[in-house]
Design brief:
The protein is mainly alpha-helical and 165 residues long. It has 7 helices and 5 strands, in the order αααβββαααββα. The N and C termini lie far apart (56 Å). This is Transposase zinc-ribbon domain-containing protein.
């Protein structure tokens, strides 16, 4: 059997075997599952017993992939290939958000980017479109695209990301 025949075989089976439940019941079940879906709150790093300190630090160059790029005059500069970028940090911030259950702190981002200034780190996070939650020492930032996917979490609270704050 080829993969091209699979759809037609499935259609034939669907015609021979009508659904047991009504379309209305099917929609109710679908709505129930969508409304009651809850993401698992376990961090990918925790699941695989990886520490933040085990990860490579510094922003990789999008061109040559060497680390770290240096932040100079609101641009990233690669010391190896000379590439300059104003938004090279977006990809790494997104990856940090994925690894931290979408709870990016200034300290975490500053450590991963190897930046000397927490204020510069805050500006990078803010300008990348992250949404701020909490106040004072409890502040963290979430990527809006990931937040939209995980919006069914109650109050957007999950286990600690595992990074020292």
């Amino acid at each position: 059997m080829t993969s091209q025949r699979v759809p037609s075989i499935l259609e034939n089976l669907a015609e021979k075997h009508p659904p047991i439940i009504s379309e209305e019941a099917n929609q109710q079940i679908e709505q129930f599952l969508v409304n009651n879906h809850c993401e698992r709150g376990i961090s990918i790093l925790e699941k695989h017993a990886i520490l933040w300190d085990d990860l490579h630090k510094g922003l990789p160059c999008p061109s040559c992939n060497k680390r770290p790029m240096k932040r100079e005059r609101m641009r990233w500069q690669c010391a190896y290939c000379g590439m300059r970028s104003t938004d090279a940090h977006h990809k790494l911030l997104y990856q940090i958000a994925l690894l931290s259950n979408n709870r990016v702190t200034k300290q975490l981002a500053q450590d991963m980017f190897q930046l000397p200034s927490s204020e510069a780190t805050r500006k990078l996070i803010f300008r990348a479109g992250f949404i701020k939650f909490g106040v004072k020492k409890g502040v963290y930032y979430s990527h809006p695209d990931i937040l939209a996917v995980t919006k069914n979490r109650s109050g957007h609270k999950s286990k600690n990301s595992g990074h020292k704050t």
